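User
Class, as today's exercise, I want you to study this protein, comparing sequence with structure tokens, and judge whether sequence predicts the tokens.
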Amino acid sequence: MQRYHFPCKPIVAAKSSALVGAWATVVIVSVLALSAVPACAQVTWRMTSEYPRNNISGIGLLTFSRLVAARTDGFVTTATAFDNELKITSSEMPRAAQDGRIAGGDAFAGALTDFDAVFGLPTLPFVVQSIEVARAVNTRARPLYEKALQAQGLKLLYLTIWPATGLWTDRPFDGAGDLRQLSVRTYDNSSAEVMRAAAASAKFLPITEAIAALRDHSLNAFLTSGDGGAGRKLWDYLPYFTPINYAMPVSLAFVRIEAFAALPDATQKQVMAAAAETGQSQFDLLANRTAENYARMRANGVTIAEPAAGPLIAALRRAATDPIAAWRAKAAPDAIEIVDWAIRQ
């Protein structure tokens, strides 16, 4: 939702004076505008995230908020709801933006695959195995994300690459056979298929629903990064973490095209400059994020099984074959080319 605040200051004509005759009679003419014309206006974008302000998604939105206000001299500001305060999940954000309930937000890409298969690219299992490849993949994929969002009436601002995905569990892993004991929350349908193919019970759930399922003990495992788990304090329920390097997902920050297009051209450039700076800041944050998360996790009693057991990784890789093939069947050729490139690295 946009809020426009008028007016700022009325426009007043300058005073003039003239000397008339030898006695220097002063004539002062003052002209006031009959109606106040706004000299400035403020646009506030209401944005949302499923995640807390202290996780990597939340940090990105806070950074963008600060930078866009600075670059536009307060012309554009954001009001962001964190931790799913608005009860709008990532998969629901495009519709919420279209309906005007929000101007934009930061959505987990894997939850958007019903709109376009390209959003499932960054969560494909065991395709991206390093920060460098993750950046290259998403640089190549960015035009595809932009096009897919544009089809929903949305403009991509920046993207955030998350630390590598692992498994949070209530028990340690002794081997691939332990997967049968897990009831896992996954972050998209593809990862749910992988975990089920590996003999676990698995379900894709929005984060708030998944936390509720942890509390009632219907779940005993989470597929998410150390960042996602630390932000949610999963150690209260799941004190073991196995870094399986499943994927390096992304979240996408966007705004409704209509809201962006309403800005003056110069302001649009300032907004996108703030977005580009935010994207770079998010990538810079990634370099030390895993180490920082691990330190925080260990300080809260989490046992990190590093490296993950070879048989476990082998079982998950085998289970990933069919979901990757299913994604290829739905994806566009240019998206498939990016994945093929990543696998060769």
